[in-house]
Every structure is written in structure tokens, then in C-alpha cells.
Amino acid sequence: MKSKISILVILMFLMLLNLKSYADADFDKAMLKAKKHLKEAMDKMDETKIVKSRGEFERILQLKKDMWLVNYYIALADYGLSMNAGITEKKDNIRKYTESGINLINKSIDENPEFADSFVLLEILNFNRWQYEQEKMQEIISATQSADAFAMKLDPNNPRLILTNGISHFYTPEAFGGGVKIAIPEFEKAIELFKSRKEKKEIYPDWGIDMAMGYMALSLMKRDDDGDMKKAKTLMDEALKMNPDSGFISGYVQSQYKENNK
Amino acid sequence: MKFSLLFVILFAVTVNSFSQTENTEETQITIISGTVKGERDSLLEGVNVVIKGTIDGATTDNKGYYEFETEKSGQQNLLFSFAEYADKTIPIEITPGKNLSQNIKLTKEEVRTEEIIVTASSFTSGQNNAVALTSLEIVRIPGADADLYRAITTFPGSNQVNEGSRITVRGGDPDEVLTIIDQASLYNPFIFDETFNVSSYSTINPWGLKGINFTSGGFSAKYGNVLSAVLDLKSYDMPQGTGMFAWLGLANASLSGVYLSKNRNFGATFSGGKLLLQPYFALNGENSEYAPIPQSNQFGGTLSHKIGSTGNIKFYANYSDDKVGIKNASPSFDGFYNSNSKSVFTNLKLMVAPSSSTLLNASASFSLYDRKNQYGILDTRSKDIYSKGRVDFTKNMTSKIDINTGAEYEYSGYEINGKVPTYSYNLSLSAPSFQIDTLAHTGRIGAYAEAQIKLSNKVFVITGARTDYHTLSGKMSFDPRLSFGYLPNNFHSIRGAVGLYHQYPKLDNYFRASENELNPEDAMHYILGYEFNKEGNIIFRVEGYYKDYNNLVLTDRNDFYYRSSGEGNVKGVDVFFKTKISNKFTGWISYAYSDSKRKQYDSQNLVPSNYDITNNISLVGSYNLTDQIVFGAIYKLSTGKPYTPVIGSEYVTSQDVYKPIFGEVNSSRYPAYSRIDMNAQYIFSLFGKFAVAVLAVNNILNTKNIYEYTYNFNYSERKEIITNNKRTFYVGLGLQL
After folding, report:
1. ipTM
2. Quick check: A146 and B81 CB within 8 A?
3. Please, are residues B176 and B226 in contact by the beta-carbon 8 Å criterion?
4. Contact A109 B136 (CB under 8 A)
């Protein structure tokens, strides 16, 4: 009798294991597909495609698995949509998508507070708030500094964190403690870390290397010391080789290069 | 044997897996497609369509069209979701291989009534579009000295008391304005309050506030025991990060900080400050003779803990003290007016959301205000003690109706002891006096219920009532209230309110009442206004009001007891225009006309009330010269405050002093009040940290505004006492640590 029960338990366990592996496979497959679509959409800054890709992640939420990671990507899509709203000057949408993104990434952090990339995203979403609520200056500063500190504690060598700090310094005037002199070493470090990094899972975020190279190129153009323009060109070419669809490189960085080379 | 069985099982499971794959391949695919429309049959792009519980679905294109394949069959639910529109789920029957077309129309999500400010006479900040006052503006308004209350007086309907932070609203007494923070009544958020010719300052840090709602009439039934206006403040439930900010100015220094724990379940804030006037006086000179010079300390903070995903428990505490001695020559005594006070406030607040449509807030607060005053023979110590427990419950009944209800119990105690002059006109050290040692206390139980109803997309109504019972007088009050809003489109709105408001007299009034027989004072508010608001960039508001007062405290000339037989009324118009031009310029003009008359305390006739300011105008502007430099300026002009003139005197032989003979109460006015203040802010980096430097010049034209008149010993000569706010320079530096 005992042996029959044992066998039954083993049978049930194996069946559950079998079902779980199916669910995991479905989830991973769907996540990878949606992740790819989001990357393509954000490379091109195509609002329609970002919305579509956001929808894919929303549908994956129905599987009720690793919702913190799914919410991370929805928040990332919201960040993309807010950036797009900035380009198209749709002021209301900057606020709408930034707040939605902050809300979702906070949900994600509540569920998994050990994921450094969530804090990086929280930091960059909070940076966005400067565009519409400068009156909350102190709150924004403490929110970004705090997110930065959490990310640094969890994963000090996260290239997206170093990249974010570099971008922040790139746009901050020297008088405010920013400037390319501070940003360049950070971009250099980020590129180095991107090249050596392998994410624990394929479904984890891996965006950013083309941005790091692009911003490094922009910083070199701005500094314009001997040989900087040449280095910038090499970096742009390398970035496009790694990600031929990068709209940031082909659309923005290259045009800046042409402008500077006139 | 066992091993064989296990092998069979494993084989079966594996085969089962393959057979599942096999079955999947045999499953027929069904295409589900359709069009999604929104309001006015517009085609909606970006709608998410999904079979519930699966990832099968699609997002609509720019023609509102969606199409996806599924292997599911049988009864399923198709979910449509889209921002600003209500989710819609429809049951579908999928027959394998038979394509399915499903067109649908979504309706806009009903706007939750709680998000709509229907109340007239409100200036708010927060998430609402009708933002008119932000923390940054409070800090940047010249002359406001980063003080919330002073900033509010640049909006129509309110005035400063003696250039300080105490405010009066629409001609009412300062005590008729109630400040609430996180449900708790905050009766004394000031330093140098009620101090002779020293401006009071607020102890509330504007950066710690996530919401400010100032309403000068027609407010909700949830606010009880207040006659004129409510300033409802909400502090942050949880800090957003960790950091510190230090401030060093010519007159003060402060340090504040926020902390958020790693798991983000615990947060804390603190702030501490000290008034250091020596350098300020060294630069600007002493405007009066002081001994000691004004000094003050303040510290406070919050502790917050998150409960579950939506709940929060927060403890708020604040302590402040002040001390000053200021020389004053009155007809009967020439010497220093000394005062010092200590104030403590604590509040514990719990917020929980039992379900997605309900919210429960509960709080317990305590405050103590202990002050000493000494001038000539007058030497008193008094204490105000308040303690309150409150519960508020909100339920979203339907998308069109929210119900708010709540109850509170408030204990108030007032104690005074010391020496007081027998005759108010003789304050000399040898004047007749008597010892006083008395206390009074009372409880007030209040309850309210209100419904916020969305009658249509354009019409909103808030209807409610509250009742209060006062244990000392044994009197009960009942206040029905109604506000409404008509919003024909996104830019225009018409708001109005009508309601009854009660406030029980101050406890010291009961000392002069026969057997505590005083009714609650009451006011009937009638308000109607129009507002044009273009996304906060242009705001124009005009509002008319009338208030009818009854049961005001009045001295009975027969026995000199206080009775509830006073009355009064106030009528007026407030006009407000604010504009924001790109990110460069923000400015506003506010104008208020008011005519306030009262028969109250010693005035047996209907006369202008103590704070009846007929005309009041403020012009405020802030200009961003660069991203780093901001200039601000303000001009204030108002009718002089009423006062009771002395029309003669008589010699009192027994005391060897002159006794003034007063004219009709409030029958004269001080000259018009005016002032121009300017400031500049420079934002920069110091030691790699965010820093801000401020230069402020208050009363730039050095206008001599009158605080009050005093007289020589026999009242034959009138002398002006000029306010202590002459032209002054201030510099300060703030640094994010």
C-alpha cells in the first residue's frame, strides 16, 4: 500500500514538473518574442510598435509568472513612449507614460527588490519628471539618488547603471557638476562592462550597448580633442555593426557627427 | 519491481508529453478578428485584446483592427483594455477552424468622483489639473519667506494678520481658519504667534507636503467646527528616496533629511531649524529694541511603515519654541513685552484599503501650546491642549457615486494662571490686579456623511451633512451642505456651494458666559463662481459670495456676560488670473473685494469686522532668466484695517492714570497697506552637489506700514507704531547633501 502511495506521489510530481516545464517554455518563448519586438520598436522609436509590444507584455501577464519581470518590460515600454512623447512634444503623454512607468516599476520592485535593473529604470523614469514637475526638485533628486544607491548596492557593475550615470552627467552642465569630462570615463566603463557581461537569463534586459557607444561618440565630438572625431566614427561604426537597427545611432548620433564635421 | 514501475511511469509521462505535442499539431487554428471603436465611433489604436488566461491576443492598429490566431476552443472570455477606457470582457464560443469576428465599442472610463474638485473657493496642489499653488511657488514667492500661509495670502480671499503667517479669510477672525494635516487639527503651527509687533512664522515645511488644499468657503461636510476656511494638508506617506538638505541663511539655519529603507517598507524624515538673527540685524539694523532678540528652535519628523501593498502607518511629530522681548511704550507702561512659547504636535495615522474600492483612514493626535506673556503688571501663563481621534471611510459605490463618512472626538482644554490687570487701560507695575487660575475643558463629538455624485459627464454634486455635540455647553449642531460643478468642456467650469457651518466659541469665552450657555456660532455660505483653466497655463476665476452669521458671541450690556446674540454678514467678489508662458514666466493677479460687518463682542451695532479689508490686490511674477537664475517680484496693496479710535480720556484719580474713551468700534481705518518684495535664486553645483542661493529684498521701497496706534499718557497725542518689516536684505544658501 505504502509503495503504491509513493508511486502515486512520484507520478503526480512528475506530471506537475512536466506541466511546469511547458508553462515555463511558453512564458520564456513569449517573453523573448515580446522582448525582441520591444527592442525593434524602441530602436526605431516607433510609437505604434512600442504600443503593440507593450500589449504583448500585458498579455503575458495573463500567465501570472514572474510578473515583476513582465512589469519591468511594460514600464520600459512606457519609458520609450514617454521619450517618444518628448520628441513629438506631446507634453501630456510625457507625464502619462512616466507616471504609469513609475507605478509599474514600483510594483515590480515590491515583488522583487533584488533586481538592480528595476532601480536603474526607476532612476531614469524619475529623471523624466524634470520635464513636467520641476517644482518637486528636491523629491526628484532624492528619488533618483536613492534609486541609484539601491542599484549600486545590488549590482555595482551593471552597465545600464553606469550608462545612466554617464547620460545624467552628459546632460548636466559643468556648473552643476556634470559635463563630458565626467561622462566619458563612465561611458568607457559601461562599454567595457557591456562587452564582458552575460545576463543570467536570456529573458532579462540586455539593452544599452549601442546607447553607451553612441553617447561615448557624442561626448568625444563635444570634447573634440585630437583624434576624438576619429574615435567617434569608429564607435558609431562598431555600434551599428552590433545593432544595425539602432535608430539612435543612425538617426541621431550620425547626424550630430555630420554636423560636427562640416 | 519498484524500479520497473517507476520506469513505466516515466515512460508514460514522456509519451504523454509527446502525445500532447502531437495533439497540438493536430489542433485547428482559429482566427479571431474585429474592430474596436471608442467614443463617437472613433477607431481606437493600441487596444490590447487577449483571451483571458492566455497570451493569445493582439493590439489594434491605426484602423482599430485586430487579428490573431488561437488554438483554444470552446467557451472563452475576450478581454479588451485601453488607457482611459473601461476594460471590457465578452464571452466568446470558439469553434475550432471556424474564424470569429468580434467588433466592439468601448466606453470611456467614468472619472472617479474623488478626483474631481467640485468645491468652490479652492486652491489646490497635487495630481489635479487645477493646480494653482505648488511647493516651488511657495518657496519662490517673494516676501513669503518660504512660508505656506504667507504664500496663500497672494491668492484672493485671505489676508495676513500683522504681516505674519496667521491668516484671516473673507473678513473673519483668524480662529475661523482651520489647518488640518493628515486628518489632525493643527491649531498652532506658528512661532511668535500673538506676539506684540513680531511677525509670526509657520512651522510647516512646504517640501514635506504632497497635497495642499486651501478652501475659503463652501467646504465639505467632513470639516467640522470651523466657520470660514480650511487648509487641508497631506504629508508624504513614504519618502521617495534618501537624502539630506542643509540651509544656512542670514537669519536662520536648518537641516532636513529623508530616508527610505532597502526594502522600501520603512521611511523616515526629519527637519530641524534655528533662528539666528544676529547677522541679520547686523546687516539690516534692529528695527525695535529687543531683550532678548527673537529666538526660536524647531524640529520634527515622520516615521512611516508600509502595511501590505496599499496600507501605511505614519507617525508625525513637531516641536517648536520661541522667545522674545520687545520694547513698547503704552500710555500706562513703558517697558519690554516679553513672551515665550513651546508647542508640541504629534499624530499617528493609519491608512488601509480593505478592498480596491474602499479606503479607511484613522488617526490619533495630540497638541500642546504653552505660552507666557509679561508686560507691566500682566504676567500670565496659558496652555491649550487638544487631542483628537478620527476615522474616515471612503467607498466607491459605483463609477458615479462615492460615499465618504467618518467620525471624530476632540478634547480641548484651556488653562490660564498668573496676574492680570483689573483695568485694561492700566498696565503699570503698581496697577490694581488680580490672580487668575482657571481652566476649562470640553469634548466635541462629530460625525458626517457625504456623497459625491456624478450626475452626468458634465455635472457633479457633493451633498452631505454633519452633526457635532459639545459637552461643555451641551449644544448640538447640524450642518447640511451642498456643492456642485458644471463642466461644459475641458476648459470651463461653473462651481457653487451652499451650506451651513458651525463653530463653537473659544474656551476662554465660556469664562464670561452664564452657565456655559453659548451656542455654536454659525454661518450660511452662498458661493457661485466661474473658472477658465487651460491645462494650468492660463487660469481665470471669478467668484461671488455671501455669508450670513448668527449666534456670534456678544457682550450683554446689562450684565456683561457673553451671549450668543451677535450677528453679521459678509459679501464680496474674488478675481484671480494666472498665466504661465513657456517655462520662462509664471505670474498671477489676485483681487478681492469684501464688505464684512459684525455685531460681535463689544460692538453692539453692525460694524466693520476686525479684519474687514475692502480691497486687496496682489501681483506676483516669477521669471526664469536662465535655467539657473530665477527672479521674482510681488506687489501688495490693500485697504487699511479697521480700528477703534480713542476720542478722549478721563483722569482716574484713584490710580493716577488716564482712561481712554473709545469711539464706535472699528469706525476708523489705518492708511492703505502696500509693499513690494523681490528675490532672486541661483541654482548651481557646489562640491558636486545641487545647491541654491537666494537673495531677497523685502519691502524694497521701505514703505512705513502701520502696526497700530499708541498714545501718550493722557491720550492727547497719537503715535504710530510702524511694523517691524522695514526694508531688509536676506541671503541664504541651500545644499543637497
Report:
1. 0.74
2. no
3. yes
4. no
